From TrEMBL:
It comes from Rhodococcus opacus. GO terms for biological process: galactose catabolic process via UDP-galactose, Leloir pathway; glucose metabolic process. This is Aldose 1-epimerase. It holds the Pfam family Aldose_epim. GO terms for molecular function: aldose 1-epimerase activity; carbohydrate binding. Coiled coil: none annotated.
Length: 319
């Protein structure tokens, strides 16, 4: 079980943490505030809803990590904001991009921890090409409805700051191989990418194309590393995306309107990217904006001094 309710602490978290509630169990790592496992107590025993990794090891393929203050990539690490040129460190030298922000490999601090919830925070700090102080928090809660993840970002500086966020979540349907599962995405458009994984044109409708997952499709042989948008929301304002096993069980990933984009990625050994112990694996990544949003301006957020942004997403089991 999780630790008893604790007060705020100034000590960096160096271990993993567990929360339980409503038949769900989640494992959280301090590094990257990462979701390293989520499982549900089904009728036949625990069912894995995410790919997993061990505390003290580097998360494979950035699994379960928070991507901020931008998700995905910035072309050449360059962008202009408020008339000022910025040059970020190139963290993806193969493609010459600045990738996934600053916080996925740093330790976050535990703010509160109870049996069924944990909250962590981090100050983004100042970096090469990044003069914008931001404070981020994430709260993980498990209950009868599954896992709910609430993010906040606060501009603690004196000038407006650009901002974007994503989450590198990997989903699975128990122990079934990915190629035996079906995927349904509530997405009407996709953004084409070039060989550097940067936008190569405007969004295009998915209807009638290989990117149309509005009805469930088998994943055998499917290759994806694609940003989707025009997410279809239900009456509660949430988009829902489903991975299902042959027996109908599986995982739903949902996102509130703040996350208007979803990156779908299939890790594939044949492409040189294998998820350890699993081979092919599926990442469904809620994002506030597409790749290179700091240059295109598409769904780029701007936080005024003192302004706070909040976004929510989550996962649940399909019995």
């Amino acid at each position: 079980m999780g630790e008893p309710q604790s007060s705020k602490t100034d000590r960096p978290a160096t271990a993993g943490f567990e929360i339980r509630g409503g038949g769900y169990r989640a494992g959280i790592a301090a590094t990257g505030a990462g979701l390293r496992l989520l499982e549900w107590d089904g009728p036949d025993g625990p069912m894995a809803l995410t790919e997993t990794w061990d505390i003290g090891t580097r998360p494979p393929l950035s699994a379960g990590l928070i991507l901020a203050p931008w998700p995905n990539r910035i072309r050449d690490g360059q962008f202009v904001f408020d008339g000022i040129d910025h040059q970020l460190e190139i963290t993806e030298p193969t493609f010459g991009n600045a990738s996934h922000g600053f916080v996925r490999r740093r330790d976050w601090r535990v703010v509160n921890h109870a049996d069924d919830r944990i909250e962590l925070s981090i100050d983004v700090g100042l970096h090469k090409g990044w003069p914008y102080p931001l404070r981020l928090t994430v709260a993980y809660v498990v209950d009868d409805d599954g896992l709910t993840v609430t993010h906040t970002a606060t501009n603690t500086g004196a000038i407006p700051a650009p901002f974007g966020m994503g989450f590198h979540s990997y989903v699975r349907a128990g122990d079934f191989p990915l190629d035996e599962c079906t995927l349904r995405l509530s997405a009407g458009t996709r953004l084409p990418l070039d060989e550097r994984m940067l936008p190569s044109g405007g969004s295009r409708p998915v209807a009638g194309t290989e990117y149309d997952f509005t009805s469930p499709r088998m994943l055998a042989g499917v290759a994806l590393d694609t940003p989707f948008s025009a997410l279809d929301v239900d009456a509660d304002g949430r988009s829902r995306h489903e991975l299902r096993a042959p027996d109908g069980t599986g995982t739903i990933l949902w996102a509130a309107r703040e996350f208007g984009w979803l990156q779908a990625f299939v890790a594939d050994p044949e492409a040189g990217k294998s998820y350890p112990g699993r081979g092919r694996a599926l990442a469904l990544e809620p994002m506030t904006c597409p790749p290179d949003a700091f240059n295109s301006g598409i769904d780029q957020l701007v936080l005024a001094p003192g302004q706070q942004w909040t976004g929510v997403w989550g996962m649940s089991a399909v019995a």
